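Below sits the subject:

***
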Amino acid sequence: HRELQQQLQSFVCDISWVCQVLSKLEMMKCIVVYWVGVSSDVVETVDAICTGYDCLKTRLKVVEVSAKVLEAVAFGNVVLPAEKRRHMVNLWIRFARMTKSLVDQAYPDDDDGEAETPKENLDNEVWQGLESAIVSILLTLPSNSQAEILSGWLQSKHVRYPDLTEAFEAWCYRSKVAKRRLSFLSDIGQVS
C-alpha cells in the first residue's frame, strides 16, 4: 500500500513538472487532453489509496495539477466540449472540497487567528486560482448543467469551498431574464 502511495506521488509530481514546462511553451493542450482522459481514474485511485491525512501531499499535488489544467480551459487556451467541461467541474469540485476539508482539519487556525502554513499546504493563490477557474468554466456551461452543479454545491456540507456564489448569482440573474423573455414571447403568442 505504501509503495502504491509513493508511485502515485511520483506520477503526480511528474505531471506537475510537465504542466510547468508545457505552460511556458504554450502547449497546455497536450496535458489538458491527457488529464481530462485520466481524471476519473486519478480521483478514484487517490480516494482508494490516500485515505485521511496520510497522503495529503499527494492530494494537494493533484489539486495543483488540476488547477493548472482548469485554468488553461477557463482562460480559453484549450477548448473543450461542454460535456467534458461539465464532467471536469463536477469531478474537481468534489475532489477539491474533500481535500480542502482535510487540510482545514489537519491544520486548523491558531488561537491568534493566524493559520499555520505547513509544508504540505498549497498557497492560497492555488486554491483561489482553482476556484476562479471552476467559476469561469461553470459560467460557460448550459443553464441546466449549471443548475445541476449549483444544486449539488448548495446541498453539500462543505459549501465554503469552492465558493460558487458568483456563479450562482449569475445563474439566478440569467434565469430571471430568460423567464421574463419567455413570458413576453408567450404574451405575444396569445395576442396574435
